[in-house]
Amino acid sequence: MMAILNNFDTLLSTTYDSALASGDLIFTASETQKSSETEYDIQCEICYAPALAKKPQGVLPIVESDPNASKDRPSTPVIKKIEKSNPFLPHDPALYVADASNEHKILLNKFCVVPKHFLVVTKAFKSQTEPLTPTDLLAVWSTLKALKHSEHAVAFYNCGSHSGASQPHKHMQVLPLEVPSPISMLVRECSKRQRGKKENRPGDIFSVPFDCINHVILLPSTDLVSESNQSQEDILTEAYITLMDAMMMSIREYAEQEALPERERELVFRTWSSSRAYNWLLTTEFMMIVPRKQESSNLHKNVSLNINSLGFAGMVLAKTFAELEVVKEKGVIALVSETGYPYEFDQESHARSVEE
Ligand code: B4P
């Protein structure tokens, strides 16, 4: 771990406090509602933040100087066009916390809902559609381990289009949490010995009870890693490759189901190979991957919600009252699962949706 991360908690807090005080960082207060829904009685979270509906969407005006300006007539800026800018290159110095590696910097999330939410961003431009590299994995892992409540923090990566990402510059994100996230509770429950099943051990791969394809792998404890010949980077890379393989195989199996009409089959391959979209989650205990079929949930009462990796952590963000009502009615797990690939092709619901 880099030496700079030794006092990371303090550095994160002081940078956060000063960016908040100077107005360089915008914290949006929210109300969290619990929703109990899975067979393991895990409480999912609906984070209701109506003020976020007003957040700018990464679009900045380009201001050109006024050609008629003179000494007696001050310049009036003319907004010529609206263009997307990269908020991470250059980054706002007020949001810079530390380097996570030679290739990564840690920036505070400018628009956070959870205090001290930060991003692990590549220093040079890389695309958010690229897979994670061993150095990406180690950089984000180091930040997790450097946090005070590291066992509760959740790191995530919204990869590719349809994954919930709004910024094209490669960035992983970390939510420092003081209590376990719903997905951590769920993975722990699913890992316990259950009747007729053996206990899951580090290296085991399994799925949690969402209604869509997902794969989870348990990671060995740091003590076990230091006793082994493998480095932490190797362990993380091996886990990531195992999950990527499992994901590819599951999509292929889904697309090759006989019940799936030819047209649908082609569509799965075409959309997946062009988007390569998935959500990825990491805690100090496990890594998880969820391939994405679509960016947003289906339409319910004319409302559809954008879902990012946090949806699969059991945490959904509702920006309007109508969105909040839809999540409460539908349930977090059912709603986020609509954006993934179903385990099995449901002929009845497909027939219904074709008729509608
Ligand atoms: P992306 O991967 O591109 O997208 P995202 O996390 O889904 O957030 P998005 O930008 O789409 O915002 P949304 O309204 O859905 O991440 C880009 C990140 O860069 C974001 O965190 C963004 O805030 C940040 N950013 C943008 N401009 C920046 C700048 N100039 N400097 C530094 N950082 C910048 O969600 C709003 C916020 O709520 C996001 O932070 C999101 O991560 C968070 N959020 C979403 N669901 C949540 C949940 N269930 N609980 C708590 N927080 C949640």
Task: Characterize the structure shown.
- The structure is a single chain.
- By secondary structure, this protein is α+β, with helices and mostly antiparallel strands.
- It has a single domain, classed as ATP adenylyltransferase (HIT family, subunit A, 2-Layer Sandwich).
- Helices cover 30% and strands 21% of the residues.
- It contains nine helices and 16 strands.
- The strands form four sheets. The chain has a nine-stranded antiparallel beta sheet with strand order 6-7-9-11-10-14-15-13-12, covered by helices on one side.
- It is globular, with a radius of gyration of 22 Å.
- It starts with 7 loop residues before the first helix and ends with a helix.
- The site of BIS(adenosine)-5'-tetraphosphate has 27 residues, from strand 8 and strand 16.
